[in-house]
Amino acid sequence: MRSVSEEPVPLHEEFIYCCGAATHVLKCGPWKDLSKDESKNLPRLLFMIIPGNPGLAGYYRTFIQALYCGLNQQYPVWVVSHAGHCKPPSDTDIKELEDVFGLNGQVEHKLNFLKKNVSKDIKLVLIAHSIGCYITLEMMKVVLSSPSIPIKATPPERKFTLFKGGVAQLLNFIRLPQERVNVGSQFSKNCCVLTLLHVSFSTANILYMASQEMMKVVERDSTTIKQNLKKLIFYYGTGDSWCPQHYYDEIKMDFPDGDIRLCEKGLRHAFVLDASKEMAAMITDWLQDDLTKL
Predict the structure, then answer these.
(1) Helices within the chain (DSSP H only)
(2) Counting CB atoms within 10 angstroms of each CB, which of 12, 107, 170, 186 has the fewest?
(3) CA–CA separation, 148 vs 152, rounded Å?
(4) Which CATH superfamily is 11-30+42-174+190-292 part of?
């Protein structure tokens, strides 16, 4: 792997409807359409980001550009917003999936997006942040119980997951927008502006999803983790009050053979604000051996 490039990488941006809900997609790389099975130019692998809450694709812009460059620009890197977490692209009246804005609906939303937009011949690496990790594990449960779903795992049977806490960043952005503007990097300021622009259109959807997180995500899904342990990497923070370090200690004890890591760089929960390039560089290092086996 080469070092993460400092040069900006052009992105392809789409606003679509998926399951009847407004969806923002950012695609890094020259591949805009991965749904045509017969194409000889399809990549072997897709990296797809499942965001936290708020699930705004724009938060991950710098991260996916850095990851794409760190992967030698060989594989597409996409981020798909959560259903309804962006301004609708039009006033088109499209029937929504029942409860598409809740946690179960967000799982179906991501599976539906993959089935409609990604060829079954393309292998998949999922990178999840915060509540996106719960969504990713739920997706894996559905795939295991429904062999007809055309999603392949990445040899050597690995999907990749970031575990970084809960919905603290959502609450901070809504309560303290001015503070966010006045501190941190220029990207932090841009993220705050992005949040304020989108929250006005999707506040109810974001908060509804957050309320379901509080009620439903109350314990670790050890069964699914055990079934997929060799496919997963876990990455825990050291100063995340929404995902305290004892969660890392407990899962490390329960799954001593798992690839479970503790952050040594002091990165905060919302790494996209100021540490996207550092995170992308770590990921490329972690996956280097796996990718050489493709």
Answers:
(1) 61-70, 103-117, 131-145, 168-175, 177-182, 186-216, 222-227, 245-254, 276-292
(2) 186
(3) 11
(4) Alpha/Beta hydrolase fold, catalytic domain (3.40.50.1820)
Report the pLDDT averaged over residues 173-183: 34
269 assigned to active site: yes
Question: 10 Å Cβ neighbour count for 140?
Answer: 22
Amino acid sitting at position 187: F
Whole-number Å distance between alpha carbons of 161 and 126: 6
To the question of pTM greater than 0.70 for the whole model, the response is yes
- Residue 239's SS3 state is coil
- What the block records as the tokens of 216 is 């439903």
Rounded CA separation 27/64 (Å):
8
- 114 φ, ψ (degrees, to nearest 5): -65, -45
- In order of 31, 55, 252, the CA distances from 69 in angstroms are 15, 23, 31
From 130, 198, 274, 276, active-site residue? 130
User: 186 CB contacts (<8 Å, ≥6 apart)?
Assistant: none
Per-residue pLDDT reduced to its tens digit, 95-146:
556 689 999 999 999 999 999 999 988 999 999 999 999 999 999 998 876 6
Which of 73, 66, 111 lies closest to 276 in space, CA to CA? Answer: 66
CA angle, corner 131, sides to 259 and 35, nearest 5?
Answer: 85
Which two three-digit tokens encode residue 275? Answer: 């540490």
Identified catalytic residue from 24, 82, 109, 269: 269
Domain boundary assignment for the chain: 11-30+42-174+190-292
Q: Is 240 tagged catalytic?
A: yes
What does the DSSP assignment read for 164-180? --SSHHHHHHHH-HHHH
Of the residues 85, 109, 240, 276, only one is catalytic, namely 240
